[in-house]
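User: Hey, my collaborator sent me this sequence without any context and asked if I could get a structure. I don't really work with proteins. Can you help?
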Amino acid sequence: MSPPRPPAPRVPPRGAREAGRPPTPAPRPPPAEGPADTPYEGGSFVVDVTVPPQYPMLPPAARFRTRVFHPNVHFKTGEICLDILKAAWSPAWGLQSAMQAVLSLLSDPEPDSPLNCDAGNLLRARDRRGFRSLARLYLHEAGALGGAGPG
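Assistant: No problem. I've predicted the 3D structure and written it out in structure-token form, which is a compact way to encode the shape of the chain:
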């Protein structure tokens, strides 16, 4: 009689994440285009997405790599203030829906919940011209306008 075999090593199912592993950067999608009729029109934006090991129970983390002048985006870090990436997250959102919400934030800023107080103050004061000019200027400085000047 031969000795008993040791149990076979457990192999997690394809795509499963082990607990305790660090967050995984998602494959970087191509740069997103700025929405029409916004100061970001014609801009090209890179968004870094990190998927935590507990996804989809926890939201992905997203930040703009491209510098963006926007009330809900931290100017230096690119952190995004969006409820579905924090407390309002639901696994039903999924990565694609979450990224669509990030891009729609460019069209519909929330100046009452700013990470960038300068941008929020301009919009709350209804200084759309000042906001638009600064947003375009910073896109131009970031090289995200494809050669177009501020305007």
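In plain terms: The mean pLDDT is 83. You can pass these tokens on to your collaborator as they are.
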